[in-house]
Design a protein that fits this description.
The structure is a homodimer of 250-residue chains.
Chain A: H1 3-9, E1 18-30, E2 33-40, E3 50-51, E4 54-56, H2 63-75, H3 79-83, E5 86-93, E6 103-112, E7 127-132, H4 145-162, H5 176-187, H6 193-202, E8 207-213, E9 226-230
Parallel strand pairs in A: 1-6
Antiparallel strand pairs in A: 1-2, 1-4, 2-3, 2-7, 5-6, 8-9
Chain A binds a DNA duplex (30 and 30 nucleotides) through residues 175-177, 192-195, 197-199, 202, 216-226, 238, 243.
DNA sequence: CGAGTTCTTCTCGAATTGAGAGTAATGCCG
DNA sequence: CGGCATTACTCTCAATTCGAGAAGAACTCG
């Protein structure tokens, strides 16, 4: 049976209820570590467990709008600050038993944000916090959110390779070193500073110079760094490839 | 308001009805051109327009299972042949007005298949056919399916770069030339045969030799080609990058 | 058999990458 | 204020990869 016949033959409200929610894997970098926005569940199931911020899609709301609204509610963000957060669809999760109460299909989204003020729980009584991703075991997470987070992290690592989205973790003006630290944090290993510098400046449209420099050198010395802002490229050509993990030798 | 509170406070059936469907962008290569599986709609809205095969997700069915079922219904495929078709989730589409009858969120999937027998319409009365992707204008397509197809094509082009999925367009044993023709068809431009050959054989786990060769040379001459099968790599390291489109010069 | 086609390998210069080192600007500490 | 550690940025050089062309061998067709 296909969609159109089905709709002709059935009143939709007779059909087994499916709910559609959005969940957001929101990433930021704090103190050199990748952090993730989570809310603590107050009610069963999974009371006391951490969960992704999310909720129902409203009747006249686009999926992306629902995700951005959920993000705004949990971060207390609005206006220009919220608009600068990168938000993209990640994937949908719809295993029949993923929520014990009813059939829920969740459209997960992925967000990249610069360092933000501490999270405040939404209008409800939940606790919300940015937690380091390394501090999470799947045991402590509600539903299939551990899996969603893993998928989000892998997507984030991959997106840094071929898009300029690393800049979304930073303020509008940033140094090449700050940009490199984003890559090192998300990819989880150090990069060669000189080669990274050469590469970033050689990829067309990745960054553009502001002409300005930082006011001070680093905390422990060193020259002032030049400031850049994000360029207008949507894709990096050629890409910044992460070093091959240990070859699956065959 | 978030998910858990909402569920505690509301009977799901009171909530505005949302239906979840799957749609499938199924691609194959016929006569050197990329083809797409479509069904012709018999009923309004969009009667007479072409649409992606798809339908409702059943109550106890996973999203991927629903997509594979829809693909099976429209292609008449089953068993081993069906299992060899690559199927992955593409994205979800849920604009409030994408279907004029009610709120429908569709989880689109992307399929790569070797050349298959002609499509047969499903149990319903629709016409189903493999059509060349170049023959489609958005005007002739139902709903937002033109957009979904565009996203699927771009995903397909991109997936050929860093995964070995091009082999899924071919039979289990294939020649390097056949593999190159897949790339040329999906990417839409010719590749240097010698360099492609060198590259494919140098990427670990992409293809492995069967030891055998084709029975005959090409139709117009040439030596017999060696036969390969897909290797066990899930990702290509290093990737096969498509030539940069005209540089967005700045 | 001859001509044309195609698979496969080779060559060579250009471009990119990885690794290390060098230079100059800066903050910190005595 | 001077010396030193630190850091931004540049440079060098060898290794690798890539693009383009060509050569050689194996084959089909007429």
């Amino acid at each position: 049976m296909n969609e159109q016949d089905f709709l002709a033959a059935y009143d939709p409200r007779d059909y087994p209820a499916v709910a559609v929610t959005v969940d957001v894997v929101a990433l930021t970098i704090r103190e050199g570590a990748l952090h993730l926005l989570l809310v603590r569940r107050a009610e069963p199931p999974y009371a006391g467990h951490w969960a992704l911020p999310g909720g129902f899609v409203r009747p006249d709301e686009d999926l992306a709008a629902a995700a951005r609204r959920e993000l705004a509610e949990e971060t207390g963000l609005g206006g220009e600050r919220l608009r600068r957060v990168h938000l993209e669809q990640l994937a949908s999760y719809g295993a029949p038993d993923r929520d014990p109460r009813m059939r829920i299909v969740s459209v997960a989204h992925l967000a990249f944000a610069p360092d933000l003020p501490d999270a405040t729980a939404g209008s409800d009584a939940d606790e919300a916090a940015w937690l380091p991703v390394t501090a999470l075991s799947s045991r402590q997470l509600a539903f299939d959110h551990g899996r969603i987070i893993d998928d989000g992290l892998e997507r984030a690592r991959s997106k840094l390779e071929y898009t300029p989205l690393a800049t979304r973790f930073l303020d509008p003006e940033f140094t090449v070193t700050e940009l490199r630290e984003v890559y090192e944090t998300v990819w989880g290993h150090p990069l060669h500073a000189g080669n990274f510098h050469r590469k970033v400046l050689s990829v067309p449209g990745f960054v553009e110079s502001t002409g300005a420099s930082t006011e001070r050198g680093g905390a422990r010395g060193g020259p002032r760094a030049k400031l850049y802002r994000a360029g207008d490229a949507r894709l990096l050509h050629p890409a910044l490839l992460r070093p091959a993990r240990e070859e699956t030798v065959r």
